[in-house]
Amino acid sequence: MKQYEPPFVTLTLSDGTTIKLATKRDRFDRVFIDTSVLFSQYGVCAYDVGLQSTAICQSAITFINGEKGTLLYRGYPIEQLAEQHDFTDVSYLLLYGERPTGKEKEQFTEKIRHNSAIQSELHLFLNSFQHDAHPMSMLLANVAALSSFYQQDFDINQPEQRKLAAVQLIAKIPTLAAMAYQHSLGRSPTPPQDEMGYAENFLHMLHNVPGKQYTPHPLFVKALDTILTLHADHEQNASTSSVRAVASTGSNPFACVCAGLAALWGPAHGGANEACLKMLQAIGDESHIDTYIKRAKNPDDPFRLMGFGHRVYKYYDPRAKIMQKICHDVLKVLGNQNDPLFKLANSLEKIALEDDYFVERKLYPNVDFYSGIVLKALGIPANMFTVIFAIARTTGWMAHWLEMMDSSYRINRPRQIYLGFPQRDIT
Ligand code: SDX
User: Fold this and answer.
1) In what order do the strands lie in the sheet with 18-25?
2) Mean pLDDT throughout 79-96?
3) Is the pTM of this model over 0.90?
4) From the CA of 318, how far away is ligand 1's center (Å)?
5) Each residue of 154-172: pLDDT tens digit?
6) Cβ < 6 A, ligand 1 pocket
C-alpha cells in the first residue's frame, strides 16, 4: 500500500488544481488523509461506497488488525480477555478504559443488578405482540418504549447521567431479551435474580419456567459469558457506526441503541449467525457442500456462504477460533461431539479454505460461523441468535456513545453523487 509521509499529501486534479491535505497517524502508525476540507476549500468531494477506506471518527476503544487477525479491547488481545476475564470485567474495560479492581467490579455489578428489572408497563406492551413475532422486533420496540420512562431523567449533557444511562441499557437489555423469548412461548417473564451473574441471570430468565427452578449448567454459563465477550465490540461496524450517526444528532441513548439493533438485525451483519445455521441445515450433509460452494462462487447467484468473509479481517477472525473451541467443549459436555452440524461446519471450512475463490478474496470464517451451532447446543433457538449478539454489543454501543459524547463531534451528513434529472419546470 502506498505510504504518504505526514504531515500532508498533495493531489492534482485533471485541470491542474493541486490539493494539499493534512494527514494523521494512529497508534499503529497507519496513515489517514484528512478530507474534511475537500469541499470547503476545493469544492470537490470524496466518494467511498460502504465507507471501505474512510474513518468516521477517532476512537481508543477497539482495534482490529485485519491482515493479522488480531482484535484488541483497550489494548488487550481478545484471546486473553476471553480466557482470564468475564463479560462484566470486559464491559467495565470497554466503558471506562481499564479492567476493574475488585471494589470497582463489585460496585459495577451492583449497579447492573439494581437496574436490570423492567417496568411492569413493558410487560403489558409485550403482550400486544403475536407469539410468533421475531424476538428482534420485540426487543427493538421495547428499547424504544423504555426511553419513555426516562425522557425527563437523563440530561445527556451531564457526564454522570450519561454513564447511568449506559448502565441502564446494559442492565436491562438481557431482561428485555429474555422477556421476548418467554412471550414467544406464551410464558410470563422470569425476573432477574440478585444473586446471579450477568450470563447466568440471562440463561435463567430465558429458560426458567414459573413454578420450576431452572439452574443453568456452569459450563453453559461460562460458554455464554465468553460468547458475550467475543461479541462485545468491533470498531466501526455497521451497527456501531449507526449508533454514532444517530448520536450525532443529539438523540437519547435508547434511540441510539434502537439504531444499532436495526442495523445488527441484517443477515450481512448480526443476523449472519441465524442465517449460517439455516444454511448448514439446508446443506444437510457433506455430499451437498460442493453444490453450495459453487453457488457461493457464482456472481449471478445472490447466495453467500454465511459466516464467511469480512470487511476488515483478511485472515482468520480470532473470535471464530475461540468460538470453534467453545463449540467443541459444549458439545463434548453434552456427549455430542459428533454433532452433524459441527462436523459439517468443519468440513465446509476446510473445503472453502482450500478453494482458490475464497483464498484469492481472503475469505475466512468470521465470528458467526460457529456461534449458531454452540448457541443451538445451549438450547437457544435460531431466532434468538441475533438477540444474543445484541445483548453483548449493547456494551460496545454504549462505550462508543460515551466516548463520542465526551469528545467534540459533528452531525453526520454525508454528500452524494447526484444522477437525477436536471432542473425542470412543471408544465
Ligand atoms: C459481522 O463489520 C464488522 O466488524 C461486523 C462483525 C462485528 O463484530 O460487528 O464482525 C459481525 O457482521 C460479521 C460478518 C457476518 N456476515 C456474514 O457472514 C455474511 C456473509 N459475508 C458477506 O456478506 C461479506 O463477506 C460481508 C458482508 C461480511 C463483507 O462484505 P464486503 O466487505 O462488502 O465484501 P464484498 O461483498 O465486497 O466481497 C468481496 C468479494 C466479492 O466477490 P467479487 O465481487 O470480488 O468477485 O468477496 C465475495 C464477494 O462476492 N464474498 C463472498 C462472501 N463474502 C464476500 N462470496 C461468497 N460468500 C461470502 N460470504
Assistant:
1) 8-12, 18-25, 31-33
2) 98
3) yes
4) 16
5) 889 999 999 999 999 999 9
6) 50, 234, 237, 268-270, 272, 296, 299, 304-312, 361, 363, 366-368
